[in-house]
Amino acid sequence: MCRTVDLHQAVLAKNDTNAVELRRTLDDRGTTAVNLMSSPGSGKTALLEALLTRAVAGGTPAAAVTADLATENDATRLARSGAPVQQILTDGLCHLEAGMLQGKLEGWLPEGTRLLFVENVGNLVCPASYDLGETLRIALASVTEGEDKPVKYPAAFGLAHLVVITKKDLADAVEFRREDFLSGVQQVNPGVPVIETSARTGEGVDDLLAHVLRAADGRETHTPVLARQHEKHLHHHDTPSAEHSHAPAGTPR
Fold it and tell me: What percent of the chain has pLDDT over 70?
């Protein structure tokens, strides 16, 4: 058991080192990374395609990296936006790591890219522990998944700088209890902003892009309580416990 914990700590420590390096590199390039996390089937890819299409149409240099266990289907879909897109195949790994993203970006990320969207593997457990060097971490959930997603996955939603509801156009059909969902979000991440979207109708897409651009401009962004607690824990203990999720940078640049 001790060896397992030590290995877990070593993997996370190496990832954190890579994330710090990647964040510095992206900052120097003027690129803002956005980490998108959700369960499979949340509509994350459809929403990201809409975001990229709006960004390209508005003259904002944007690119995307999408991760999956297998197939390049999502990269093909996202490329329809006109933005540069790369696919990472994790070969069964349930999350992205900073080193994997770093390797994919080297020699590829177009000069002048302002926004880099990273579509993480469809999973709300493992990805929450891995900082990817992002400025903005977004947790998404569709109205079809139920109202208790935030409290079932407190790390994923508790470490988010922004929460996004997807497939809002289906809310009435599935009898989505909006207030229950919002209550759960505030329970695990007090004060986090929530944006409701529909890739099908376009509702909320402009608001979401505007929020991302404000973060890219260096404007103040929500700092999760869970991230602050994690930083305090690291300050008081030389070696973080494996029971604590590794948090992304609490306050974006």
Answer: 87
C-alpha distances (whole Å) from 27 to each of 19, 30, 66, 71, 74 are 12, 5, 21, 31, 27
CA distance 209 to 31: 15
Question: Tens of pLDDT along 57-112?
Answer: 999 999 999 999 888 999 999 999 999 999 999 887 889 999 999 999 999 999 99
Q: Name, in order, each residue with C-beta under 8 angstroms of 184's C-beta and a sequence gap of 6 or more.
A: 147, 148, 149, 150, 151, 157
With b for 16 or more beta-carbon neighbours within 10 A and e for fewer, the 83-99 pattern comes to: bbbbbbebeeeebbbbb
Quote the CA–CA distance of 164 and 150 in Å, as a whole number.
11
Reported as type and span, the H/E element at residue 86 is strand 85-89
pLDDT at 107 (0 to 100)? 95
* pLDDT score for 237: 43
What is the H or E stretch that residue 32 is in? strand 32-37
> For 215-219, which contacts have Cβ atoms below 8 Å and span 24 or more sequence positions?
215/32, 215/34, 215/135, 215/136, 215/161, 215/252, 216/32, 216/114, 216/115, 216/135, 218/252, 218/253
Residues 57, 65: Cα–Cα separation, whole Å:
19
In the 8-state DSSP scheme, what is residue 188?
H
